[in-house]
Give the backbone structure.
Amino acid sequence: MAITVRSFAKINLGLRIGALRADGFHELRTVYQTIGLQDIVRVRVERGVGIEVRCEDPRVPRDESNTCHRVVERALEALKSRGRVIIEIEKRLPVQGGLGGASGNAVAALLGLEHALKKSLSGPERLRIAAEVGSDLPLFLMGGTVLGLGHGEEVYPLPDLPSAPCVVALPKVAVSTPKAFADWDARTGGIGAPIPTETGGQECPSHTGGSELTVSGLPDRMKEFGREVAIGLSTQQKGKAGKGLSGVSAKSRGRAETPLLDLVRTGIENDFEQVVFPQYPELREVKHVLERAGAAYASLSGSGSAVYGLFASRAGAERAATRLRKTGVEARLTTTLTRRQYWKAIFD
């Protein structure tokens, strides 16, 4: 019998790119947030040997380069199990969209394999295998709101933020992540230094206060991302006492705010926008449409091409999605997922 697993997407709440490391990766700082958009992955184990990946989308590799194949291969070895594993991927998320589709598929295949075999890896072993295969995989072993360090593979759960309406725009553009990194290096010399924004200032605004999430020796702009996140989370904690069931602060009457919107308003940005938007101006325009439609925060996710907007109300999100569709851009209405919602729905 096949095990069916929901493979959810992620967005990046800010993404700061640091220096190019000796191992070929860039130092990164980001906050991952899982959302309700999803692929479906089905896993079954039969007699025999080998791993077979099936998908009707021609852009999805079916050989050993597929992230699902690579994860399952490692998991079988770690579990000391054998069998013919068949992985069916029902793609609903875009390929090369910046939503972590392939990474989420791989983690879904890993969880499905464990259920099919009735065996489980330890938490650290799962994380080790996930990090070996790809930088975005470990976040899907946590779900909810997650701090990503290292080259994105070092993950730490952050205090869960209440769900917020989200519109994800899916322009028909495929952005190459390696090229986006290369373009960033060409502009910064590979050292991740601040560069001028369109308004002529520096991209790292100064903030004070709050505890710091820092790593010794990193450039100031990398430390600044930690300060911004810490400020946002501090605001969340201070506001909890005054919030009712709706998550609206009693001190902000008439203002439909959530702690998630408080976090992104601290000034976190996605560095990729500075190199991707000049190459694909239509993506910048999509962001502007979301902002004009009332998004409290809009951003490229990862290196794109997906652009999302966070809204204070579902009605506002619905109006924004309608506006995007009228311009010919595919737009999907969803919500951010807390850690509890994420794990409850994976096998539901």
